[in-house]
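User: quick one, sequence for these tokens?
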């Protein structure tokens, strides 16, 4: 059930990328990691110029992705952009230190004049656990303890803490302090677990749903659970957002071909890790028509976003762009059309109540 005041909400529209290493427009050769990181700055500047609300960079430690330290890239973007929020999607808190996460993003917040946003996650990929010396058998316990510690740190008061996996603190003040006694803007990324929803409510964090396959409407119960749980726990009912993959081009046909060449390849590679079957043409076409892929010309993509957001009751939509690498020109075109045509059209459609 969508709340009656849904169409009066303040919507946000963002872009997410894992820093998939792009391909050169002329030679079609894969960029170096250094080139890929520099192009992300170019993409972020374009997104800022177009008025897109948020840019979220994912943390990964894998061959196909260039971003292993999102906050460093975001720090560079802080000096090149003016208004766009600079966040992550996600920071793998389980294999990180909550003190260091706070310190890095409080620093980013200062450099960007209050535009930092961290999204905490357990990690859909798990390569960071052995890389940083953590045991995957502690997967759930690590996140539970570290998000509890993080929630204490961001209050800005001296921290006294004793944990199983984390360091002990005795009335320790963590620096730098946030300006104007603000709390660090924090989301929790959720892949589809009721326990994750309830945890986010307990600590008072808004949620981003990662919807990467199937019909988005199946996530509506999670939005309802968040709202019900917040009221029952006497916590604020904060906005829920979603992110999904997409490709936007001048025509549906061109967008379809780019998505088939790159997004399908990416999903097949992901499926090898997770035991999924390879993507069939039928499944791919279902994902575009009814599922979680936002592929097409600006009107096609805008119509689908405007149908999906009210069905779920979400107030933020992030488009995951560049999956599988893609040619740099096609990545920039997706950003250009998303910010210049899709977002304004979605706002029109939502205002009309369609």
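Assistant:
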């Amino acid at each position: 059930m969508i709340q009656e005041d849904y169409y009066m909400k303040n919507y946000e529209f963002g872009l997410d990328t894992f820093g998939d290493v792009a391909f050169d427009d002329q030679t079609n050769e894969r960029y170096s990691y250094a080139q890929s990181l520099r192009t992300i700055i170019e993409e972020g500047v374009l997104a800022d110029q177009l008025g897109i609300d948020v840019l979220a960079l994912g943390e990964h430690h894998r061959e196909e992705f260039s971003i292993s330290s999102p906050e460093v890239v975001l720090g560079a973007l802080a000096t090149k952009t003016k208004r766009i929020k600079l966040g992550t999607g996600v920071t793998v808190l389980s294999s990180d230190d909550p003190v260091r996460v706070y310190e890095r993003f409080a620093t980013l917040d200062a450099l960007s004049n209050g535009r930092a946003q961290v999204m905490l996650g357990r990690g859909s990929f798990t390569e960071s656990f052995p890389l940083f010396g953590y045991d995957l058998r502690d997967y759930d316990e690590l996140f539970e303890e570290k998000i509890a510690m993080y929630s204490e740190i961001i209050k800005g008061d001296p921290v006294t803490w004793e944990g199983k996996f984390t360091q002990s603190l005795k009335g320790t003040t963590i620096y730098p302090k946030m300006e104007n006694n603000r709390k660090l803007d924090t989301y929790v990324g959720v892949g589809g677990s009721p326990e994750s929803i309830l945890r986010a409510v307990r600590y008072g964090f808004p949620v981003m749903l990662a919807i990467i396959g199937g019909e988005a409407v199946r996530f509506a119960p999670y939005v309802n659970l968040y709202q019900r749980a917040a009221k029952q726990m006497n916590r604020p009912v904060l906005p829920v957002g979603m992110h999904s993959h997409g490709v936007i081009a001048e025509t549906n046909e061109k967008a379809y071909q780019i998505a088939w060449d790159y997004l399908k390849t990416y999903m097949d590679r992901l499926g090898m890790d997770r035991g999924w079957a390879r993507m069939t043409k039928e499944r791919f076409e279902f994902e575009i028509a009814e599922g979680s892929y936002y592929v097409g010309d600006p009107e096609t993509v805008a119509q689908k976003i405007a149908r999906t957001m009210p069905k779920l009751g979400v107030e933020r939509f992030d488009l995951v762009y560049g999956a599988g690498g893609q040619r740099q020109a096609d990545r920039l075109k997706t950003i250009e059309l998303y910010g210049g045509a899709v977002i304004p059209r979605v706002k029109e459609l939502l205002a009309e109540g369609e």
